[in-house]
Design goal:
single chain, alpha/beta, Metallo-beta-lactamase, Chain A, six-stranded mixed β-sheet, five-stranded mixed β-sheet, 21% helix, 26% strand, binds zinc ion
Length: 196
């Protein structure tokens, strides 16, 4: 099953896919007690970060392998300015990355098959995780229910984001689990029209 922690603060949303393996998707800043408790209540086998921003990676648990899109991986390891760490955590030194995810990679548990879609635009290494059979997507900051991620941060690119969203619009998706705001249904074509 999918556990959702919808954040109303600086943290990203955090999702746990609990199945034969337990996958944590994004981890917030690491600075919010209730969210830390939420994360530590699971035995996490793998962390997947949708991109390298500090509000998604700061709370990555220790001693659990971390996976992230290959084009954001060095930045997460080195804690570069692309993580926008200075926004919240001037002391951020980065985390070791165990798996650099590419387009088409899959993360599989007994009942879920999460396919990695490389969806640049918010950051160059942003990924979404799409389960075609369940028609769900974890969209990070590429797509929100009512909007899109910023493109004015390091490695952001408006044209790339539009292209990524057009790609998502072609998929069958019944529920979006975004990086911020509520989860739910989403009319991606309408969002593209509204924002570009
Ligand atoms: Zn972000």
């Amino acid at each position: 099953m999918i556990h959702e922690y919808i954040s109303y603060s600086f943290d990203s949303n955090v999702y746990v896919v609990e199945d034969s393996k337990t996958i944590l998707i994004d981890a917030g800043t690491g600075m919010t007690d209730s969210l830390r408790r939420f994360i530590t209540s699971f035995k996490i086998d793998l962390v997947v970060n949708t991109h390298c921003h500090i509000d998604h990676v700061g709370g990555d648990p220790e001693n659990v392998p971390i996976a992230i899109g290959e084009k954001d991986a060095d930045d997460l390891e080195k804690g570069t300015e692309k993580t926008v760490y200075d926004f919240l955590m001037p002391f951020f030194k980065g985390f070791k990355v165990s798996k650099r995810l590419k387009e088409g990679d899959t993360i599989e548990t007994e009942n879920y098959r999460l396919e990695v879609l490389h969806t640049p635009g918010h950051t160059e290494g942003s990924i979404c995780l799409y389960d075609e059979a369940k028609k769900i997507i974890f969209s990070g900051d590429t797509l929100f229910i009512d909007g899109i991620g910023r493109t004015d941060l390091p490695s952001g690119d408006e044209k790339e984001l539009k292209r990524s969203l057009e790609r998502l619009a072609d998929l069958e998706i019944e529920k979006v689990y975004p990086g911020h705001g509520e989860s739910g249904e989403c009319d991606i074509n309408r969002i593209i029209e509204m924002w570009f």
